[in-house]
């Protein structure tokens, strides 16, 4: 499986994104009732924000992943934890499919993490999934995340978790 990432284009990718974020399996994305225009507006705002980037992940050339990278010192987690230099916030969504492949999502999160750590400035990845999203907690743990504590965000109760480069490499068997 080959994964590569390209910058998300809010207009060009609007139909694709709309189908993904409104799918029942994307409930934790909290965009179930979004219109196509809502999606364009949301991702245009992200594209204009210097502290946020969004990417489409291509698996063997086919769009299959939405990845967001953000600076938690400026977005999402401001005032909820003490950011360190090199902290990078991350969200990811796997495209819905009618033919699930066992182990696919674990391969996806591994590729997402490898992409984030490919930047030498990234020291630690920070995530804040919904506390009730047990599936993503297991995936996060599989790639080295360690939960720190529950936090209350405006839209959800979240599990604040961290993964250093060393924790990721140890979890996925990458030689340091």
How would you characterize the largest beta sheet? 7 strands, mixed
Unreliable spans are: none
Query: What integer is the average pLDDT?
Result: 92
Helix content: 25-40%
E-strand count: 7
Beta percentage is 25-35%
Q: How would you name the oligomeric state of the polypeptide chains in this document? A: single chain
Descriptive report:
With 176 residues, this protein is an alpha+beta fold. The chain is built from 5 helices and 7 strands; from the N terminus they run βααβββαβαββα. A 7-stranded mixed beta sheet has the order 1-2-3-4-5-7-6, sandwiched between helices. Helix 1 crosses helix 2. The longest helix is centred in the middle third of the chain and has 14 residues, at 104-117. It is globular and about 35 Å long. The protein starts with a strand and ends with a helix. The model has no long low-confidence stretch (mean pLDDT 92).
Detail the topology: elements first, then pairings.
Blueprint: E1 3-7, H1 14-21, H2 36-48, E2 52-59, E3 62-70, E4 87-94, H3 104-117, E5 124-127, H4 134-142, E6 146-152, E7 157-164, H5 165-172
Parallel strand pairs: 4-5
Antiparallel strand pairs: 1-2, 2-3, 3-4, 5-7, 6-7
Helix pairs in contact: 1-2
Key descriptive features of the protein:
alpha+beta; seven-stranded mixed sheet; 7 strands; globular
Short description:
With 176 residues, the protein is α+β, with helices and mostly antiparallel strands. It has helices spanning 14-21, 36-48, 104-117, 134-142, 165-172, and strands spanning 3-7, 52-59, 62-70, 87-94, 124-127, 146-152, 157-164. Helices cover 30% and strands 28% of the residues.
